[in-house]
Write a structure and sequence with these properties.
By secondary structure, this protein is an all-alpha fold. The chain has two helices and no strands. Helix 1 (2-10) runs antiparallel to helix 2. The termini are far apart. The model has no long low-confidence stretch (mean pLDDT 85).
Length: 53
């Protein structure tokens, strides 16, 4: 994931675009990873503590 982030940022030419890309990518990326982690917790909790039929 870090490699993909850096490859994307490397294609930005203007400093303003670079800074904007990093900030937006960090905010959105963190939100996406946090959501995926919550989904994984729900799934793992169901597997460990869920009721089986």
């Amino acid at each position: 994931m870090a490699r993909v982030d850096l490859e994307y940022v490397a294609h930005q030419v203007a400093r303003e675009e670079l800074v904007e890309s990093v900030v937006v990518g960090t905010v959105i990326g963190d939100a996406v990873f946090a959501a995926l982690r919550r989904f994984a917790h729900v799934d793992a909790s169901d597997r460990v503590f869920g009721e089986t039929p």
